[in-house]
Amino acid sequence: MTFAPLRLKKNEDRRLRAGHVWVYSNEVDTAATPLAEFQPGQPVVIEDHSGRPLGSGYVNPRTLISARLVSRDSTQSLTQSLLVHRLNVCYSLREKLFGKPYYRLAFGDSDGLPGLVVDRYGDVVVVQITTAGMERLRHEVVAAIDKVLRPRAILLRNDGASREIEGLDSYVESALGEVPERVAIEENGVRFEVPVLAGQKTGWFYDQRLNRARLPGYVNGGRVLDVFSYIGAWGVQAAATGAARVLCIESSARAVDWARSNAAINGVEDKLALMHEDAFEALRLLRAEREHFDVVIVDPPAFIKRKKDSREGMQAYYRLNQMAMQVLAKDGILVSASCSYHLARSDLQQILLQSSRHLDRFLQLVEQGGQAPDHPVHPAIPETSYLKVFFSRILPN
Questions:
Q1: If I label 248, which of 34, 150, 238, 347 is the partner at 20 to 30 A Cα–Cα?
Q2: In which residue ranges of the chain is CATH 2.30.130.10 found?
Q3: Which residues belong to CATH 3.30.750.80 in the chain?
Q4: What is the per-residue pLDDT across 171-205, written as a single tens digit (0 to 9) for each?
Q5: Which runs of E-coded beta strand occur in the chain?
Q6: Domain 80-176 class in CATH
Q7: Are strands 53-59 and 42-47 parallel, antiparallel or unpaired?
């Protein structure tokens, strides 16, 4: 099959040749190949300024990232056969890493599947499509997943904000079988039920798996505060792995109910209390009541979603971590996370240092974590490395 060429300006092929897979709109030679003549998601052959092919991909003339490289073989397009092959490659890694079928099967560009995220919950699979090029192939995507995994049900959770940037509609629908309201998973030996139809993102955050596995050594016999608890991933695991008492703070009433249910599933409902409140207001109230905890966990949503939000977001991270330290015991552990790509690991470390110095406390960085290996990093795309976690000891000065 022959595809239309998308030609780059002189020297704008260097990033692609160095390993990157994105083409920005200002890198396209629009005199030779006008972007306006392409349809969103249209397959293309990406060429250098001289017309030599760099590979195949797809284009969206409406977005800053105007094209994504799919294969460095310009004759190979993104077909169902290629989807099956790459999903099988994804599957082989996850099966080596994890003993049970609960993981992120595909992580977009890092797995050679731009615009596609696939989370596996046993025999139920939840799919997020974020680009016009992958949306054109949604039926092929479903067929490929069915061939690789033979799941009972496949859910399309195509309701993320990034779809609007691509000019795509928002929808949630079953693509195969009957999708249940809740699915069962197990993480680090602790059981959960996950709301795949109405929860955040695909319902669960597998990226924090290994960081949550570190909890037992810190929480044993202690009093734990889990801020932004969602459905209890951190808090229920803390209660199930040795904490004496756990308080979860969550602003969503529905998520509070899910966290309560997950505590009951693991028989730790007597250890776990829930506070339906805004995180910052809850921390203010706890400080006013002179409450102190041996371990405080702050795993907030991304405060910096775009680069222009950096200043305001940095202030939010600073305020959050300072307030968290104010309710820590004299020799306490702060688990502080950020999923904002635009907040560098060094920035979060500096925020922790500044917060501790403002409170005249001594900070020790005990452990650092990142995203689990089912969220592999593409070495040429810094944006695929986004999760930062610090386990810090906060002592009197």
A1: 347
A2: 4-71
A3: 80-176
A4: 999 999 999 999 999 999 999 999 999 999 999 99
A5: 4-7, 22-24, 42-47, 53-59, 65-71, 102-107, 116-121, 124-129, 153-158, 171-176, 183-187, 190-194, 223-227, 245-250, 272-276, 293-298, 328-338, 361-369, 388-396
A6: alpha beta
A7: antiparallel
Domain 205-396 has CATH 3.30.1330.10: no
**Is 13 in contact with 49 (CB distance < 8 Å)?**
yes
The SS3 of residue 146 is helix
Q: Number of helices (H) and strands (E), helices first, in the chain?
A: 12, 19
Contact partners, residue 139, CB within 8 Å, separation at least 6: none
Listed residue (128, 144, 130, 132) closest to 86, CA to CA: 144
State whether CATH 3.40.50.300 applies to domain 4-71: no
Q: What is the pLDDT of residues 247-295, one digit of tens each?
A: 999 999 999 999 999 999 999 999 999 999 999 999 999 999 999 999 9
Query: In whole angstroms, how far apart are CA 93 and each of 88, 104, 125, 297?
Result: 9, 11, 17, 30
For the CA atoms of 232, 188, 222, 283, the dihedral, rounded to the nearest 10 degrees, stands at -30
User: How many other C-beta atoms lie within 10 A of the C-beta of residue 157?
Assistant: 23
> Which of the residues 339, 351, 372, 389 is marked catalytic?
339
Spatial neighbors of 135 by CB under 8 A, at least 6 apart, are: 41, 115, 129, 158, 166, 168
**Rounded alpha-carbon distances, angstroms, from residue 17 to 9, 20, 35, 320:** 14, 7, 22, 42
Give Cα separations from 248 to 86, 229, 251, 317 (angstroms): 39, 6, 10, 19
Give 185's contacts (C-beta < 8 A, 6+ positions apart). Answer: 102, 121, 122, 191, 192, 193, 194, 204
What is the C-alpha separation between 205 and 199, in angstroms, rounded?
11
Q: 14 has which bridge partners?
A: none
The pTM of the full predicted model, rounded to 2 decimals, is: 0.95
8 Å CB contact between 377 and 108:
no
> What residues does CATH 3.40.50.150 cover in the chain?
205-396
The distance from CA 280 to its chain's CA centroid, rounded to whole angstroms, is 23
Would you call 377 helix, strand, or coil by DSSP? coil
